[in-house]
Amino acid sequence: MNTATITVNGHVGHHDGGHHPAGILRWLTTTNHKDIGTMYLTFALVMFFVGGIMILAVRAELFQPGLQLMKPEFFNQLIGIHGLVMIFAALMPAATGFANWQIPLMIGAPDMALPRLNNWGFWLLPPAAILLTLPFTLALFGIGDGALATGWTFYAPLSVQGGIGVDFAIFAVHILGISSILGSINIIVTIFNMRAPGMTMMKMPLFCWGWLITAFLLIATIPVLAGAVTMLLTDRHFGTHFFNAAGGGDPILFQHLFWFFGHPEVYILLLPVWGLMPHVLSTFSRKPAYGYKAQVYAFIAIGILSVIVWAHHFFTAGMPVPALLYFMYSTMSISLPLAVLFFCWIATMWRGAMSFETPMLFATGFIVLFGIAGLTGLVLADVAADAQYHHSYFVVAHFHYALFAGGIMGVMTGVYYWLPKWTGRMYSETLGKWHFWLTVVSFNLTFMPQFFLGLAGMPRRIPDYALQFAEFNALSSIGAFILGLSQLLFVWNVVQCMRGQGAPAGNRPWEGAEGLEWELPSPPPYHSWEVQPQVK
Amino acid sequence: MKRLAVPALALAAMQPAAVLADYQWNFPKPVTPIARDTLAIHNEFMLIITTLFVVVFAIMIYSMVKHRKSVGHAPAKFSGPSGALQWFWVLVPFGILLFIDFVLMGIPAFHAVIDMEDTKTRADMVVKVTGMQWKWQYEYPDDGIKFISNLATPPEQIENRAAKGENYLLEVDNPLVLPVGKKVRVLLTATDVIHTWWVPQFGVKRDAIPGFIRETWVRIEEPGTYRGQCAELCGKGHGFMPVVVKALPEAEYLAWRDAKKAELAQSAAGAERAWSKDELMAKGKEVYAKQCSVCHQPEGQGLPPAFPALAGSKVVNTPLLTPEGKLVPDGHVDRVMNGKANTAMQAFKNTLSDVELAAVITFERNSFGNRMGDMIQPAQIKSLR
Predict the structure, then answer these.
(1) Do A388 and B42 lie within an 8 Å CB cutoff?
(2) How far is B319 from chain A (nearest CA, A)?
(3) CATH number of the domain at B277-384, please?
(4) Does the model's ipTM exceed the 0.85 cut?
(5) Domain B125-158+165-253 belongs to what architecture?
(6) Which residues of A touch B101 (CB under 8 A)?
(7) CB neighbour list of residue B120: distance below 8 Å, 6 or more residues apart
(8) B93/A364 Cβ within 8 A
(9) How many domains does chain A fold into?
(10) Per the CB < 8 Å rule, is A384 touching B198?
């Protein structure tokens, strides 16, 4: 798309026709990709705060040594549900929301290929979120002993021993998995069949490429997770012994199955963000994206590598030396395609004419902080050093640099970039900049100390800690609260745009923006491209 | 922020010793060959990644400063390398990265892995470590020594009702005692869920997996007390099962070993004689406080539904034994000795002595409002094993 010239055929009008019901029924029955995209994004934002409040309670408990606010049992429930909510109910739906809004606009299609499936894919999410969090409420009424208390990883045999919260979480994961697979099928079918005439695969926007690889990864790995948690369910209730050594099973089998899904999951969360980065960088550098083909091949390479490195998540569980070496070197080799992406991002900025509106600030912040995640990931691959880092706060810091700075800040980049297109209104640039700087400073205040906590020997998932860890934990908790509160600026900014406040955006609010979506009015008509554009 | 992150990482790399009194910026002082090796590798890697970080982002920040629209920079048009020279400069960073990955980092990492996994060559002794909710059992198979190591921090400190001691949460009643300078092969397993045995100053961390044996090794170079923690989430007591290892010079270690053997022999002898109910109650109270009260609570009220109350418990209030003197299936003695599958209730016959079992069962039957009035002798427990 970067070199393609675009002709818009015919008249693009406001043909929404009024054939859809109004009020709540509109949202329940809608098959429109924009409505569904909005619902995904709203759901993600709500769950981002649900997961955030859980972890702020955890950080409050960890502010000082000693148990002040909660019992260890409850603490364990919060950390696990925080992880599941943030991954499955915040980041993944946010990425699917982007896909719904943007893929049809960017490839010149009127809607997604399978609109009813799309509707169902979304409406599976709220019941799953309720299942995940319901045990907290049930416990208040004396039913069960609360939510999943095993961490988000469900490790057997702890999860075999757990209460009804585990069963609720298993079913929630099943439903979330079905939703993801439906969404993925829809995206693959849309991308393969509904591109505008002349848009070959290698002219397709990189965002669509990122999502295409994500969709294949989801279809490849979600069934493995579903299988693993189903085996857990039958171990718990139907007398099987998949993970029980006394019955001929193996607890480590669970870890293999879980991380066969869990490692690709990291890239499932990040590929859509890597896809949108070149668009933002190119727009605000006023220069074409660098190395389009190299980025596409890097996405594919990372997709393939991601499914063959899983065991680096449990080096300390013990495995034969050749296996250790294989997983160590294969993990290190991911740094090569990742370096291609970093190279292309920086080369896109190089000798451009940059300006730093909020999306560009978030994009550059993303590159630097995600760089820390990548580099610490490289040292984590070393088996011997990993023995010190693993299960410690070093790992917690590492994956929050990957999933908050990489994932959430990437999503925010995309929201600020496309919000004017979606709502037809400009957000407040001043508030956006405040949001960025507060987020970046407090994020580092939260997670930088955790690297040092890990090095000093603080294990993760402990509700109370030795006195030598006190100062860094206090800093981290202060950072976390600022980080949480500054996200309210984001909500305010988004809500103002949705309410029609702010300057009108026009078709192309960004000077350097290229691509089909900017040919349409802001907000785009209810059915985007009734007549498909020609891409030459 | 980028500017803050750089010195912070650099500091981690270059300051192995604590620079500020209360802050720990790097691994604690290593006391085994593996830990020294790991620290050296870690420092080297941190230097490498800090250099990469600084170089790459210096280029980016230079561009962000110079190539701005506001300073009138006109955008270039290129979207990929063109010509041999540009291709060369594009490929150089990847050549460097390949070298860093598989030579600079890859080769020392290879040797460290081989060294770490070599648990068997010239091992001087074996120690077996068993993780259980939420304590460690240490066993010296060659000497027949076996004991449990429990958290020694009093609950008042955890609940903020008393000032916290220097080794808060990192202190135990019976530390693992090891000789200095000997290669100790550590075998690990667990009875219930996965635990992870970790002493940061040893540079080793290994999972203890129920039903399997995993292994690692240590050769401690200086006498001292070394503290670590369980590192795998293992339930509500995960934060409260520290690992404490006391390393003694060999002569002192041998003296400790002989004393420990004698002590265990003496308590085994106790199983042969008849105990009075008062003796059993007193001993049982002690055992209960250490082994049972975490879950069943000091007053026997439990934490239902996961941890049932013992006060008025259906299980406790069953007949002690069948008229033939056998175990009542799912009765009190059976439950304490054999545990309950898929719950935190473990089979205590594996970890407690005959005396301790007899005492704690007698204590539970006659406390918290339970008035069974009966008692069981250590000798009876022995015959039920």
Answers:
(1) yes
(2) 28
(3) 1.10.760.10
(4) yes
(5) Sandwich (2.60)
(6) 332-333, 335-336, 378
(7) B185
(8) no
(9) 1
(10) no
